[in-house]
Amino acid sequence: MKRSILICDDEKNIRSGLAMAMELEGYQALTAEDGQIAWSLINKESVDLVITDLRMPNLSGEELLKRISSAYPRMPVIILTGHGTIETAVEAMRGGAIDFFTKPVDLDRLSLVVRKAISSSDLYAEHEKLKLEVEQLKARNRYDRIIGKSQKMVALMDTVSQVAPTKASVLITGESGVGKELVADAIHELSTRSKGPFVKVHCAALTASLLESELFGHEKGSFTGAVKEKRGRFELADGGTIFLDEIGEIDATTQVKLLRVLQERQFERVGGEKSISVDVRIVCATNRDLPKEIEKGNFREDLYYRLNVVHLDVPPLRERKDDIPLLMTSFLTQFNEENNRKLEGFSNQAKRALLSYDWPGNIRELRNCIESAVVLSRSDVVEVEDLPIHIGKAQNPSTVALEVGMTLAEAEKQLIISTLAGCAGNKTKAAQVLGIGRKTLHRKLQEYHIDEA
Ligand SMILES: Nc1ncnc2c1ncn2[C@@H]1O[C@H](COP(=O)(O)OP(=O)(O)OP(=O)(O)O)[C@@H](O)[C@H]1O
Ligand SMILES: [Mg+2]
């Protein structure tokens, strides 16, 4: 859709000159010969940017600017001034104009300023749309801390809501930073035990003997330092859920004891004889490949089958890149609030980089990256310079290398791949840019075996 620019000046030659210049740049130009006419056009037509003279009959440029700033605060206004009115122009900038030009207007600079303003208001609009989508997603999900609308995440959340109300043990696997703990939280929150305790144990953080007494408790005097009896985490979790994080790290003795809890729902404190029964739902997580650990003799197979009644595998971020825009937006909103900043979105370059990068540290890495960008940024959008260098470099090339000797088909394939990457995988957009229909694009993707990941 063509963007509309309203040019307002009482001198006919300036109006028509600027209108022609803007049309040559691909915009639709509207003109008005005084502020009054301009104001009624702004209220009637969809105007994306206003270029206005200051001294005009009926309604002055200053007054027009004032009205626009209060009714359409996002609409960019550029001021034109004759000689000797620079002070007024400075005043106008304070009133919210984005730039000013003295006549005769430097058309090259004007085009540049217009292009930048339009593209930043496009970015803003896109960001607003994504923010709305995040809100809608949160309203729809019963568990709103997990952001994601990719097929893989929707399927995962479906399974989560299905198994949460049961008592089945759940094993959550996935790379570091994919959100395993968040899924565990969701399982507890969505279960009938949500009012009961939710006890988390980071198994890797404790030595073998400490872990055993941490989980099952100990009697007074059972080992040096056990001056009092102590209730273990399983007892504390009675009536609720226990989350054993990094379950792949637990030692052989604790594995045996854990197996017994799963089989008989009973255990003894360290150094104790009395059997204790608890009603606890067990959720575990690991980023290890447990079947491999079983082969190596590090993990008991029988325990594995007991824990793995329901298996939830959280996919890495690179396999669900369509979640990135929502995650970016939601983290930006969050860190804006936390840091009292008002960043309005991401520059196109920054967006391309974030979408192209592979995210080995998954969502945790993305989250940290946005947090530091919000803190570091000096402009009103996140720029590629605000990202860590290795992520900023990840942008897809915006040019295609064509060499003589290449077939036409090969050239077409390269162009399609790069365009798709430039459009962040959005096929409708890519088809538009390429000037072909969506169906044609689909056919070509198949024909050239271009992966639709
Ligand atoms: N889908 C998501 N939506 C919003 N935030 C998420 C999502 N997934 C993960 N996060 C955030 O990313 C960070 C890492 O998530 P989490 O701690 O659950 O990962 P993990 O898989 O347990 O990682 P590790 O294996 O390193 O323990 C957390 O701050 C979490 O809130
Ligand atoms: Mg974790």
Automatic annotation (TrEMBL):
Localization of this protein: Cytoplasm
Main location: cytoplasm
Record-annotated Sigma-54 factor interaction domain positions: 146-375
Residue stretches making up the Response regulatory domain: 4-118
Gene Ontology molecular function, alphabetical: ATP binding; sequence-specific DNA binding
Any Gene Ontology biological process: phosphorelay signal transduction system
Entry keyword set: Activator, ATP-binding, Cytoplasm, DNA-binding, Nucleotide-binding, Phosphoprotein, Transcription, Transcription regulation
One GO term describing the cellular component: cytoplasm
A Pfam family this chain is assigned to: HTH_8
Keyword match Nucleotidyltransferase: no
Protein name: Regulatory protein AtoC
Organism: bioreactor metagenome
